[in-house]
Specification:
Elements (H helix, E strand, L loop, with lengths): L1 H20 L25 E6 L5 E5 L4 E4 L4 E4 L10 E6 L5 E5 L2 E5 L4 E4 L6
Length: about 120
């Protein structure tokens, strides 16, 4: 229960911070305009899954932006360009060996920390 509560609070804080970054008021938030244009301040419009792995990283599955990993310092994105079979990630779990498994729009993907192995109907799903 404690881990779930901690995860929920972290997620709510993260959502609050990222939603505030997108708001601008020229008199009180002038620093917002100084952010580089290439910095993404929102994970995606539709987060459908949140998972905390055994290392404490937060993973966010989205409808159209793949999966985002937050390690407490930075956000890293994984999409079909990185090897996922689809940018729709609706389920995230970790097995006892530390592999992450992603349920996507086009099958299941296993992530070993470096690369993805994908399983679809062609592999018997």
């Amino acid at each position: 229960m404690k881990k779930s509560y901690s995860l929920l609070l972290t997620y709510l804080f993260f959502c609050f911070i990222t939603s505030c970054i997108g708001q601008s008021n020229s008199t009180t938030n002038t620093h917002i305009n100084k952010l580089p244009k290439n910095i993404k301040t929102q994970i995606g419009n539709y987060i459908v899954e949140i998972f905390e792995d055994s290392k404490g990283n937060l993973w966010f599955g989205t409808i159209e932006n793949g999966v985002a990993k937050y390690d407490g310092k930075k956000l890293e994105y994984f999409t079909s360009n990185n090897g996922l079979p689809s940018n729709r990630v609706v389920q995230i779990i970790e097995d006892r060996n530390g592999f992450l498994w992603f349920g996507t729009g086009f099958g299941i993907s296993r992530y070993d920390g470096n690369s993805f192995i994908n399983f679809s109907e062609n592999e018997g799903l």
